[in-house]
Design goal:
This protein has 394 residues and is mainly beta. It is built from four helices and 29 strands. The protein has helices spanning 2-38, 102-107, 276-279, 285-290, and strands spanning 42-51, 57-65, 70-74, 80-86, 92-94, 115-116, 122-123, 127-130, 133-136, 145-146, 159-165, 169-178, 189-198, 202-211, 215-216, 220-221, 239-242, 244-250, 256-262, 274-275, 294-299, 307-314, 319-325, 329-333, 342-343, 349-350, 357-361, 376-377, 383-393. A hairpin with a 4-residue loop joins β22 (307-314) and β23 (319-325). The structure holds beta-D-glucopyranose.
């Protein structure tokens, strides 16, 4: 009798326990649902990335939206080190070329993922004249200045201004003060760059700058994309569309000749979507000079300001990217100088054409080209420009 009593009270105890567990689970599930509803549209995680050779601490910020797009940015060069987007099956992969660690970013310089400044692309013979004064710049590309000089914005540690999260987006704001005559450029230039990941799967890059002396400025983002997510593959199988009737012709130094040439009946005509491989090896003087595509397209409708200017699509993965900007030009560079010497994180190497860049900007060498849109910034003005990379899969 006593044993059956124990059994029934044990049973009772278990029933209570199970009911309890059941209730708890329901409560927890409710909490989860509740939390999910309240979750931020974008999460931001900060971590230590490393220390530069000269002892500066570098941070990494990883922004992720609820859809699953994830972008990592380091304060060294304000670089995008990874950008994960979904393919048509919903598989997320990194689609931007990068290195495994800070040491490699400091050592080699194809400008992977970098913020480029003070002047994106080449300034002929590393000099220009502004209001009667000749400025001599650092030369780091033969006799020319490329992407700001020996120590451009891609090689400095940016200050973190802060992160913000609103109803539809999350942002990281960075800043850098480029001192008067740094790399030869006049004026103390205060620069802010804000990366914003949005609910709608787009990444905005907002650039703002002011100067205390008249100067020139041309900031851009130098991510190399490979929408396949497989960096051992060439990007020539991507389809590209660029809304531009003309491109900036270059000479053998890749310096603009001053001519804005029509794309009509040339390998530079991307007004209708076409494969990169269609024209990249064409017998064409400009293609030969660039070793492929390494030119600035004269984007249509600059009067509209911020507008859709380009698209890229990779049919294998179904990944699709759209670019919007208010800038007059876009350098389409097909990674022609990558030569299989730099290590990819998966153990492979980055071969020629394993990534392409869409660098929205003023035209190269504008400070020496009176007929190009002006890249001059005066102390009374603010340089503000926005570029968006928007991702989808189909
Ligand atoms: C330029 C290339 C240059 C590359 C450096 C591009 O923006 O157009 O000519 O070699 O940057 O990685």
């Amino acid at each position: 009798m006593s044993s059956s009593k124990i059994n029934s009270s044990t049973m009772f105890f278990f029933i209570i326990l199970m009911l309890n567990f059941g209730c708890k689970e329901v409560v927890e599930n409710d909490k989860k649902t509740e939390n999910k509803e309240m979750e931020d549209p974008v999460s931001i995680v900060e971590s230590n990335y490393g220390t530069t050779a000269n002892g500066e601490k570098v941070k990494q910020f990883t922004l992720q939206n609820q859809g699953g797009i994830q972008v990592s940015i380091i304060t060294y060069g304000g670089r995008i080190t990874s950008l994960k987007t979904a393919d048509k099956e919903g598989t997320y992969k990194n689609i931007v070329l990068g290195f495994e660690n800070l040491e490699q970013y400091e050592k080699s310089n194809p400008y992977f993922g970098a913020l480029v400044g003070r002047y994106g692309n080449r300034i002929s013979k590393g000099k220009f004249n502004l209001n009667g004064t000749e400025y001599i710049l650092a030369k780091n590309n033969g006799e020319n200045n490329l992407h700001g000089g020996i120590k451009g914005f891609d090689k400095v540690v940016w200050k973190v201004e802060g992160t913000t999260i609103s109803d539809s987006e999350g942002s990281l704001k960075l800043s850098y003060l480029s001192k008067d005559m740094e790399e030869g450029f006049p004026g103390n230039l205060t620069t802010f760059v804000t990366y914003t990941l949005k609910k709608d799967n787009s990444l905005d890059v907002l650039y703002e700058a002011t100067t205390d002396k008249t100067t020139v400025i041309n900031l851009t983002q130098h991510s190399y994309f490979n929408l396949s997510g497989d960096f051992s593959q060439s990007i020539v199988d991507h389809k590209v569309e660029i809304n531009a009737d003309a491109f900036v012709k270059v000479d053998s130094r890749l310096i603009p000749t001053g001519e804005l040439a029509s794309v009509e009946s040339t390998p530079f005509d991307f007004r209708k979507t076409r494969l990169i491989s269609d024209g990249i090896n064409a017998e064409n003087e400009q293609i030969e000079l660039g070793g492929g595509y390494d030119h600035c397209w004269v984007l249509n409708h600059p009067e509209k300001g911020y507008r859709s200017v380009a698209k890229a699509y990779h049919s294998g993965s179904g990944r699709y990217m759209e670019v919007l900007t208010d800038k007059p030009g876009m350098q389409f560079y097909t990674g022609n100088f990558l030569n299989g010497t730099l290590p990819a994180p998966n153990g492979g190497v980055y071969s020629k054409r394993s990534g392409f860049c869409f660098e929205t900007q003023f035209f190269p060498d504008s400070p020496n080209q009176p007929n190009f849109p002006s890249a001059t910034l005066k102390p009374e003005d603010t340089y503000t420009t926005k570029t968006t990379f928007k991702f989808s899969a189909e």
